[in-house]
Amino acid sequence: MELLLDFATAEERLDRIDAFIDSVLAANPKATTFDINEKLRRSHAYIKRGVLYYGDESRNLNPLLAETILRNDKIDRIESFGAVIEAELNRLCQIYKVERRDLISLMSERKPSAARAVNQLRGIFDNTTLDYKDLKSAIRESGFQIHRTESGDILAVNFNEYIIIDLRAEGFDLTRLDYKPQKKEQPTVQKPKEHQSQPKKSGIRPLQDAGGGASDSNREWEVGKKPDYDDIDDGRTLKM
Length: 240
Description:
- The chain is mainly alpha-helical.
- The protein is built from nine helices and six strands, in the order H-H-H-E-E-E-H-H-H-H-E-E-E-H-H.
- It has helices spanning 2-6, 10-27, 33-40, 63-79, 86-96, 112-125, 132-141, 213-225, 229-234, and strands spanning 45-48, 51-54, 57-60, 145-148, 154-158, 163-166.
- The chain has a three-stranded antiparallel beta sheet with strand order 1-2-3. The chain has a three-stranded antiparallel beta sheet with strand order 4-5-6, covered by helices on one side.
- It is elongated.
- It starts with a helix and ends in a 6-residue tail after the last helix.
- The relative contact order is 0.07.
């Protein structure tokens, strides 16, 4: 490779490097940026984000090459999660937008860090003193995010440590992740005390006894003042 570049123009050098990268991908369809740069290192060239650099010269890679290398970088990232279940792998392909599912293989067993994470999450889920909010907070603090897929899968994903866990497949109690509104106790309403109504004072003044009263008037009517109805008939009582 170096001999081919010694007596070439800048444009020819970059063309030959392009052809070399193409040959690397032909031999290894899953070659990543790292893999290619390892082979270009002796030529003092490297690629980064779809751009080829050689000394002070640079140019964009062929779009097909750039797209293929980017896809391979994503596949490499997906495989670093060590997915062991189809649901885990499918979710990672959705996240990283990789359609070539056939280029990725499932792991036969979980990597040690993922196995430890399963036990860590199980301890969080088994803590029944945690309510819905506290449980979600504890999961986040452990570095995981909960992902729900359209097919009903529920997965815990840690992007810092490259771990993904299908919670249903691992036997987690997924009802703990369902929101349950807490019932609020209704405040006790105290009934106002009933006030006994006082009898209203009458505005009518009682009759005063003025020295004889009604009984004396009756007696006066009875003694000598009561007319004789027989006298009225003959008219004598009308005489003055």
